[in-house]
Amino acid sequence: MAVSLLANDVSDLCIGKPAVRALPLSAAAGDLAATVRKGPRAACIAVGPARGAVVGRAGLADVLCLLCSSPDALARPAAALARPVSALLPKDGAGEVRRVDPRSSVLEALDEILSGAQVLAVPLRNGGRKKQLAGVVGVTSDFCWLTQEDLVRYFLNSISLFYHVAARSVSSLGLVRPDFLSVRPDEAALSAVPLIRRAIASETAVAVVSADGHLVGEISTAHLAACDETAAAAIATLSAADLMAYIDYFGSPPEHILRAIKTGLKAKGLDAMLELMEDETMTSFSLSSSSSDEDTGRAYLRRPSSGSFGRRSTEEPVVCSPASSLVAVMVQALAHRVSYLWVLDEEDDCRLAGIVTFADILRVFREQLLTCVHWIFQLEVRKCHRGCCNRQPSVREGTDDSSECHVSTVQKNVCAVPYCGCTRC
């Protein structure tokens, strides 16, 4: 039964997860960028003065937004990179990071995500992995991330328990949101920086949509996080469509894209940014010349592309239709490691109709779990009123006589039902 999923703790979803790397709030943004580049393309966390106080999460995409946040930051990138990590964290509470106890229920973690938390920080319990990581420089074994993707995968593994909604279309479930972030292909990429910040907080992307409503591509925060600080020069000078092409070729961009960026930087008088870009380009060239790619005679491309300026082939946005089933959308998103899917309306010449996000998908599962719990609650109350014993049905601590069922009770007793205590019940 679906309610049995609530018997698991949050720690059960964190088995095998690596510890996150941490930086103090006083660390420089440039230090964060250097730390992230040394390991997997994952965000770092910022911790407060007290050990175990999680303040927020930041990555290379946040650094790029900082560099493009003002004309002064673009003109003096070194000064911008010297700013503390705290400057990267949103001031409006968006993209909040919350700490949860490893013994918390799945439903409690679900409520934290759906109430505004972007990601959950779960303390790692003492064990072998913590001892292994204890001596690694720049790594703290205190926390691991629990994301929306982890929760969606958790429910997908038990999707047969939700067969009555799994086969329903995303449109019938009301999951297609028409309010998505978008820009025109010919708009300046710099104008999209506020939208990129919002996309980081919501774990989505900025759609690049043509004037007739067709999806041209996307500016993905995950793809930006695979770049380095020099991508700020591309954001400052290119259009949204051209920025997509730059990201496609990052690591070895075509000469005409580099010329366009350098010309734009000179026209805007951003000499310091131009110098930073040229220094990084020479460093990347010297590193690549000593790699095995030199032996093959091929330039390294982070993601191959067709070469059409502003259009993508191998990294097209992940899309679905309004008629796609819930389970199909979940499988598709998890397979592509994205937390959203763009919805194209086949009845409207495949124009962009909206977006389906993990957050909305998780709301469906939460409703199903609560419905199941409340149904069992009422069923057991009726059983106790059939006269199987003389005792009145007692309600466990944390619940009342209504159909509402407290989260803590769900964790202590899977069914969260008020058994009267007799053997017949």
The helicity comes to 25-40%
Strand percentage? 5-15%
Global shape: globular
What strand order characterises the main sheet? Answer: 1-2-3
| Largest sheet data | 3 strands, mixed
| Number of helical regions | 19
In whole angstroms, the N-to-C terminal distance is 19 Å
The number of E-state strands comes to 12
What would you call the structural class?
alpha/beta
Low-confidence stretches: 128-141, 282-314, 387-425
If you average the pLDDT, what whole number results? 78
- Whole-angstrom Rg: 25 Å
Describe it.
The strands form four sheets. A three-stranded mixed sheet has the order 1-2-3. A three-stranded mixed sheet has the order 4-5-6. α6 links the parallel β4 and β5 (117-123). Helices cover 40% and strands 13% of the residues. By secondary structure, it is α/β, with parallel strands linked by helices. The protein is built from 19 helices and twelve strands. Mean pLDDT is 78; it is low at 128-141, 282-314 and 387-425.
